[in-house]
Every structure is written in structure tokens, then in C-alpha cells.
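User: I'm writing a short methods note and want a consistent example. For Trehalose-6-phosphate synthase, I'll paste the sequence; you return only the C-alpha cells, no commentary, since I'll be parsing the reply automatically.
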Amino acid sequence: MCATDAVPVKKVLVSDLDGTLLGGDEDSRRRLRRALDRHRDITVVYATGRSLASVRSLLAEDLLVPWPQWIIADVGASVIDTADMSHCEPLETALRTGWPGERRVRQALGRFPQLVYQDAVTQEGRCSYYLAGGEPSDEITAAVEALGCSWTHSADLYFDVLPPRAGKGPALRELMRHLHWPREDLLVAGDSLNDLSLFRLGVHGVVVGNAEPALAAQVAGDPRVHRPALEGAGAVLDALERLGWVRAPRRVVIGYHRPPWQRCEGRWRPPASPNGILPTLVSVLGADTGELDAVWAAATTEDAATAATIPPGLPLRLLPLPAGQWAGYFHRACKETLWPALTSQAHLIRHDPAAWADYEAVNAAFARHVSAHAEYGGTVWLHDYNLWLVPALLRQHRPDLAVGLFHHTPFPDPQTFRRLPEAERLCASLAQLDWAGFHTAGFAENFRSLLAGAARIPRTGVHPLGIDRRAVASLARARARAAAATGTDGGEDRVILSVERLDYAKAPVHKIHALGHVLNAHPALRGRTRFRLVCPPPEKGIHAYDTTRAELEAAIAELNGHWRSEDGWEPVEYITTALPFEEVVDHYLAADVFWVTSLADGMNLTAQEYVTAQAATGGSGVLVLSCHAGAADYVKGHALLTDPHSPHDLAEKLRAALAMTPAQGRAHTARLARLLEAPAPAEWARGIVAAIGEGGGCRSAPAGS
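Assistant:
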């Protein structure tokens, strides 16, 4: 194929193979491979005396050799684009100009008995010999020059006859011109005199410690060439580190399927809310804290060059994925197969083999990505069902790591889980964890019951995630003062509020029907009560909630059409855009009732935000909380809990909340604020990292269990 358009690259490593990239001990080669896996913005080019056939065999057999984007083979007579393993004909035509052909070369040199042709080596555009007896004689070199050819002699053994314009250096020069690579972005590495022409290009260089003394002597005094004592791959890695092109692996790797910041219109943007797992982890990874020697590994559909441009101060390492693969993995396998089981809606499980293949592929790529960034004996903290296959892969390839996974979602009972088509494989992978974390004891018990009888039983921990209460309270007080100063703190008589993403698990249609029952039974609320539903749609491409959206919009239209008054009052205000967090807090302060009706849920941080905002401003708002939300475990007996599976209970608890007096509401909110106190998010995260590392691995199941 031979790409003709310049592809933006960050850095380029051009390395000889034998003695250089393949040199050094196995540990050095493994560390170099992982470093290059961590830094996919580094383009790898082989510059080798091997043929393409030999290189392809090497790639198939040697798991430690990094995959190249380009191959300069046949001592610089061949250039191959590995996108399709095709020869780059425009470059090779230029390099091989003047080549008389193998037959003429062998005829001309056949009279020299000290030259032994390498019959066992596949050769293109060159003739390679073994040369016994040291340096080539003047007669030999004169015969080569009479053919109009060039030659190289290396390791006191190898003698290569090349076209007059060929060689590793000339081939790289042509490739640099072809792809517009600047000199300052290249590092060349070699160990023998046939690599010398690479070092003549004015680029960064490294001569490995096991190199021919003659090569080291030729580049002595060149400030651009590094000459460490390390051999092979160890020297190459040392040079990459000295140039600042690679970073060392981290003690802790946080694995989450998406980055904490999102790209929007070509720019990175931080999370809108101070709460949730994304800002929580940023709080312990930011440049100002330095509390965890950690890196965040995430996936992106951006290209490798764009993905390398990350927010300053954030130790983020992105794994580029094709957009189509992401859609199969996240939009379908995660949302249409796994999510229904997690939310105990097993009848909605849809299994697409092609999408599941994408899930497997992304998990495998993620395991390699995490492994490349984790130092030996490090800690890996995975998050959620999106990465359920990663634990088994890490156990297989990196048994030195302590691996934990925290579930921010509900975890279903074993019977529901086992309705997943791939349940057994998922269970086998989850059993390879060292630690599994949950928001509630009930979720943890479901997990232990699922794995009962497994040979490996992960330790479990219950760590409910709270919010940044100080930040929410401070913002609420500031917004309340601003509203009072501008006279905008009034409004409708009664406001019911829900803030949630569009998801059948949030039971939005159940809410509309319950509100209709309340309005039917209590005429006094008509015209004086409004339900404000802030419910933005999911990520584009997710269709798992299309039915819910259609049913919700139809139910709202029917209810508003039935109760719409002559002065324009409607019972439901439906907001489908994601709001800035400041505006969300404004809605919290204006709401008399905050209504959470999840069929299954994690902690539900919006409920905590509402309670905190109301308590900070002396508000009298009332929380109606689903008994299936994680937060319900911590407020039982004190909160107004509702069961969304019971239409009567939904309507009755909403009516009860609306009937509370302001004094009752203030007492209710103050009590919940005390009950929902939890460790600060940063402290929560540090505690989990410590919990994963405790014990040094999984415990075995007791005999007979």
C-alpha cells in the first residue's frame, strides 16, 4: 500500500533487531515492550538486515518484540508498510536504482573464495555474504564498485552488497521525506557498523552497550548519541527515558472504561459535577495532591495522536479504540446485555454475538493496556461491569498484581446474574479478583453467593461513596444568596424534582403514572404543583432506552394534555438537556420534594446532593427515596422510602411528602443529612486502594465449601 499522506506522529523509534531490539535480557525486553505499549504515540520502525519473510516469522513467534509501523529490511534495500505488509514501491524504486541484479553480483564476486553467499537467507535487492578473514580486501571492494554498488561490513563476519543508493540510513532518509518526520522526533538505535548510516542523519541515537567497538568509535563525540553500558533493549529503554519520551510504570493503575475528562469540540473539559467517581478519582490523581503514585487507564475513540494530547497535570493514559468496536462494546454489550441483569430486569437482556465479541476484544486490549502501565507487584483498581473479563486476563499474564474491582452499580442476586448468556465465563473472571467492592452489604452478599464454591473467593468490602459535601453546601449557600438578592427565589407553590439520566432503571414512566393518580385523588394540588423532570438522553448510539423514551414522552403528553389549564399550567416540565451543576443546585433549592424511584440503583448521589443543599440553606425540602437505591440502606427507619414496583405506594409516598409542613420538612432533611455523612471522596478512594493491596491476593475456599 505504502501510505502517501503524512500521518502526524509524536516520536519515532528506529531500531536494528538482532543485538539491539532483540538484545539484552528478557526482563529488559519485557520492560521495553510495556513502555512502548504505554506510549502508542511512538512509531516503531525496524531497520534490519533481515528479509521481510524473516521479520514476519519473528513477529509470529516472539511475543516480546514490539509491533512496527514500518520495516526497513534487506539492509536498507526494502521498505515495508506493515498496515498490509506491502512493499513501498516508490521508495524502493529510488533505493534500488542502479542495482545490477543478484546474478551479475554473484558472477562478479564468485572468484573470491573468502566470500560465502548466504544461501539460507531470503534476499531482495541485495547480496549478503559471510566474509572470513577480517576486513574485505581492496580487490573485493574494487569489484563491488565496478558493479556500481555499495557495501557494508559488520561484526567482522557479514559483507553486504547493496544498490548504490541503498542502506539503512538512506532508506530512513527517504521514509522521513516521504512522511515529513522532523529529525528532532527520531531516535535511532543500533549495535553494528551496518547501522552507522542511521547515525549520520543528525537525529537522536543510542549505541547499545553490546555494540561493535568500531560503531562506538565512529560516533564518539556526537552529543546526540547516547552510549549506555546497558545491552540491547535495556539501552533503548534508557535512551527513551533520558529523552523524556516514555514514563515509568505506576504503583497504582486505575482502570475505567472512559476518561475523567471529556473531549468536546476538540477540547478537554472537566466533569460538570464535583461528585461521582470521575471527579473523585481526579481528586486523588491531580498534580496538586501527589498522594497516589497512580495513573488512569481509559479508552477513547480518538486517534492515537489526539489521544496523546491529555489535560495537563492529569496522569491519563488512553487506549484508542475504533468507533465501531466501541459501539459494539459499550452501546450494545454493556447496555443491552449486562445492564438489564445488573438492574434486575433480566427480561430485557439482549445478546448479540458480534457485540459480545467486541466486549471480549476491548477487555483484552484493556488488560494489555493496564498491564503495560503497572509496575511489578502493583495495584490495579478496576471499575464496574464494563471490565468484568479483565481480572482473568491479568491473573493469567500478570499474577504479580493485586487486582480489585469496585461496583458503582447494584449487583443482582445469583439467579438473575446467571440468566446472562456468558454468566459462567464472567463468574470465572470475577473469581480471579483479589478484592471486590460494593456500596451496600446486600450487594456484597449477592456477589459472595454467586461465587460460592469457587476455588478462589475474592475478599469483599462495603464502601459507600459519598459526595463532596463541603463543595455542595458552599455552592448552595452562594446560589441561595444570589437568588435572594435578585428576587428570583420564589416560584410555583409546590415543585417536585427528579434529576436523572434517561434509563428504564430510574422508572420515569412509573413517576408520571403515580403523579396522575395523586392529581386525580387530590384536586387541591392541581394548578399548584409541578413535576420538573431533568432527564437528558444517553450517549448518542445507545438504543437500549429508546422504548422507555417513547413511553415517557407519550405519558407526559397524555398527562399534560389531560390536566392543562387555561392559564397554561401543566403538571410536568420535561427538561432533556444536561444542565451545568450550578443550575442543578438552583433546582435542588427550589424543589419541595426530590423524587428518586429507581428499580435498582447504586448509592444515588443526586439524593445526597439534594439533602446537602437543602440542609445547608435551612430548607424544608423532603426526599422520597426508592427502597432499592443503595442510599436507602443507610437511612432506613428515618427516610420516606418508596417502592417503585407498587403504583399505590409511589403515589401515597409522594402525597405524604407534599403534605409535610415546613417544620417537618426541615427536621426530616436535617436528620437525613446526618445519616448520609460519609468519608470525603478522596479519603474513600485512598481507603479502597489500601483495601485492594491488603492480604496480597485471593484466599482459597475452605475445604468442603
